[in-house]
Amino acid sequence: MRIFSRLLVVSLFFCVACSSERNTFTNRTFHNVTAHFNAYYLADVRLKEVETEVYQNYKEDYTQILPVFIPFDSATIQANAEKLQSSRELASKAIEWHKISNWVDDSYYILGKLDYYQSHFDDAQNTFKYINVNSKSDDLRHQTLITLLRLYVDQGEFENANFTIDYLGKEKNIADENRYELYRTLAYYYEKRGDRSGVIGALDKAIEYSKDKKEESRINFILAQRYQREGFEALAHEYYEKALEGNPPYERSFYAQLYAQQVAELNASKDLRKVRKYYEDLYEDPKNKDLKDVVIYEKALFEEKQGDTELTLELLHQAAKEPGSNPRVKGYIYQKLAEINLAEFKDYRATKYYLDSALSFINEEDPAALAITNQKESLDQYVFHFERIEGNDSLLQLAGLSPEEQKLIAENYIKTEEERLMREAEALQKPKSSSIFDNLLAFSDRGSGSSFYFDNSVAMQQGAIDFQRSWGNRPLQDNWRRSAVSFQSSAPTISEPIEGDSIASETDNLISQLPTLDDLLAGIPNSEQQIQTLNLELEESYFELGKLLYFDLEEVEKSVANLETLVRVYPSSSKKPEAYYLLYLAQKDLGGNSQQYVGRLNREFPESQYTYSVNNPDAASGNLAYVESSKRYEQAYNAYYSGQYQTSKSIIKSTLEEYPLTRNTERLLLLDIMNTGQTEGRVRYRERLENYIENSQDQALVELARNMLKPLLSQEELAALNPKELDESDSTQVEKNAVTDDGENEGASNSPYKYNESATHIFVLVMDPALAETVKSLLPDLETFHASNFSKERLRTGEMNMNRENAIFIISPFSNAAKAKEYYSKFQQEFESEGLTDQVKSDSFVISIENFTALNKSKNLEEYRTFFKSTYK
After folding, report:
1. Within 13 Å, how many C-alpha atoms sit on residue 700's CB side?
2. What is the helix (H) or strand (E) element at residue 814, kind and residue range?
3. N or C: which end of the chain has fewer CB within 10 A?
4. Are the C-beta atoms of 695 and 578 separated by less than 8 Å?
5. Dihedrals φ, ψ of 812, to 5°?
6. Residue 302 and residue 315: Cα distance in Å, rounded?
7. Dihedrals phi, psi of 337, to nearest 5 degrees
8. Residue 10 to residue 776: CA distance in whole angstroms
């Protein structure tokens, strides 16, 4: 009875203590212990397990400056969704079941971090702000604010980050552990802002409060890298030495020793043999077997500093073949090869292919990959057109030969390829060590140049070539000699792989590259249609290559060579006027005879916009020219629809003479053609339309011109059109581009406006003329905004009055609706200018050129905004 009574008392005690409402000492003690060592503890353990896995899965790239924080790996976070959900449930129970415990706020902190890791950023911010306001623990508040600061930096919310930094700067009694995290987060803030001195200063302070030797080693390595990049080699050496302390991973130790040696001795050493011996010792060290590519890469960089380009390239090629533990190093090796081939040899093809190889090793989200992708844009176009010219030109030369000559050239080509494959087979032949045991074998001469067939890759290659020459490409199977092999099993009988099969497989791979005579002869064009297609492609590539070389690659002389080939070989090319204009510009740059092209343009293309431009080289350009030509276009447009065709033509001609090349030029030319249709014959009208379609860059205007041309075509010519194109042109634009998702475009079919995804678009800001006078900094702010976010788009800004009530600012051009919408979204989120109201920003819109013409005529802004909201938003 006594034992029973005691158990009953204890049970009653716990029953009373379990209440989460009664705030007594017994209750608080029970809930503090239970919350801390049960729900909260388990939630924290699961969260730390995921954080540890993220850390372990991250592969450091020591060839680049290490990031302050190891980035979150979304794949690892998603793979641990179940564990994170368990942590969330446990933290929630610690809050719900133990409301009066001291671990409620800590559990909220876990929930905030879970939201942060799972990209629920708004929820995480709200949770962290709640803890800061309500928690009585200064240490927890500081820890929360530091994590909130990191979140703000991640999101690019630097104003909020600045406010948080100021707030923390006024806080007192920050614990050492929190100070360590605060200085690391400050370093991360400066890293994101590009403040290199700020990163170094913050990390120097962080080390003072560090208690983890391995993490301290990592920070020392980052500081050493940054001091080395800034040219402070003595400091860099000191911090590389410090990075070796704290039992760091072997790879970090290797790089710390390598870079410490570089800054201390290699760069300043005059004894080149000593330096090269150092790299050779590193290469031969068995511990570095997974870092051989790094050693050779660093040696190549050293030789580059000595000015030995040939040896540098040789070492880089070797480094690309060496084993390595970090694939990104291979990417940097190929990137360096591309850099040298571009800078030293102007070899655009090699540069493009090396950059392609680099991208195959570097993650597409890596900043280096983004830089390579941008660099490759013009190189890809160059290689495409260059190789098409080479290929098509060779095929056309072959097409002009007799069948006998074609066969002879094909046979010689195959022979040359056979010789190449034999040389490659010789390269595969690896000498084998001779020993006393070789003399005991039946074939005692199995060393280098063995006579044993299956050990001799040269003999195997020759045998494969002879076999193909006699029998053609035959599968490896039984009864391969028989002509009626269809009666036999079609499945090849392949022997089990044995030692030495690697040579055979490499030989097979090489022989598979060898073309047959029939294949080569079949590739030679033999019809007029094929030859015409090749010539059309050549015409396009000569022009595009000339244009690319002039504008993007700044190779003026090579540009001239391609453009002159175009006008010489294809005198009837529709690209001839623009080619003449580019040659005119190129000759001016070279100090040559540019006037010859002025004469040719005036003689052959008197009505071309390029003729107007060369006749008036000092014509106004830029935004003012665009605005003025827009006003003149409106006058000419109104004159045309009033039946005053000669007046309209006169306005267009004077506008093109004064403002020859603006974004309105193609619109003016099409309007001039429309006047031709009213004042001259059908033949002249058709001729000008066809020429316009060939040369215009604005696809929306080209489509309009095609529709204008169709009534002038015969039934046979209409039938010859692409059926798909004909069907699309005959359907209404509203039906063609109707938005079907959730009926979003309902009611737009009655609108006078038409949605065209591929049409050229502009962005429009509408405001009161009085406001337009006060926002003095709008245009400079727009230029800054464009330089920061759209530097490659060549955007221009214009200003005009739509009517007395509205002034508009126009940003253009955007080649399609998607790019315009991207600009609209970025503008709404990030653009700020003093005096520009939120209402004006909200009322802005994007619009196609065709729709802007209609809007400019109706002046009904609300009608278009309705269409814009239902179609674009």
Report:
1. 23
2. strand 807-814
3. N
4. yes
5. -155, 170
6. 10
7. -60, -40
8. 79
Determine which helix (DSSP H) or strand (DSSP E) holds 848, and give its type and residue range. strand 845-848
CB neighbours of 527 closer than 8 A, spacing ≥ 6? Answer: none
Q: Confirm if 316 and 300 have CB atoms less than 8 A apart.
A: yes
Q: What does the pLDDT read at residue 22?
A: 52
Name beta bridge partners: 800: 808
Instruction: Tell which phi-psi region holds residue 65, choosing left (phi > 0), alpha (psi between -120 and 50) or beta.
Output: beta
**DSSP H or E run through 628:** helix 623-641
Chain centroid to CA 710: 41
How many secondary structure helices (H) and strands (E) does the chain include? Answer: 43, 4
Q: In whole angstroms, give the CA distance from residue 580 to residue 338.
A: 33
Instruction: Look at residue 557 and give its three-state secondary structure.
Output: helix
For the chain, list the domains and their CATH numbers. 38-266 (1.25.40.10), 286-378 (1.25.40), 400-428+454-471+500-526 (no CATH), 530-606 (1.25.40), 623-730 (1.25.40), 752-871 (3.30.70)
The pLDDT of residue 267 is 54
Query: Residue type at 137?
Result: S
The CA distance from 300 to 64, in Å, is: 17
Cα–Cα distance, 85 to 47 (Å, whole number): 10
Close Cβ partners of 859 (under 8 Å, ≥ 6 residues apart): 802, 803
Long-range CB pairs of 624-627 (<8 Å, 24+ gap) are 625/659, 625/662, 626/659, 626/662, 626/663, 626/664, 626/796, 626/798, 627/798, 627/799, 627/800
Q: Which pLDDT value is given to residue 734?
A: 32
Q: How far apart are CA 272 and CA 233, in angstroms?
A: 20
- What SS3 string covers 249-269? CHHHHHHHHHHHHHHHHHCCC
Strands 761-767 and 796-801: unpaired
Cα-based angle 544, 545, 547 (whole degrees, multiple of 5): 65
CB 603 within 8 A of CB 614: no
CA 210 – CA 246 distance, rounded (Å): 12
| Residue 711 vs residues 426, 667, 677, 686, 705: alpha-carbon distances, Å | 68, 21, 12, 10, 11
pTM: 0.64
Low-confidence ranges of the chain (pLDDT < 50): 7-17, 19, 432-454, 480, 483-503, 723-749
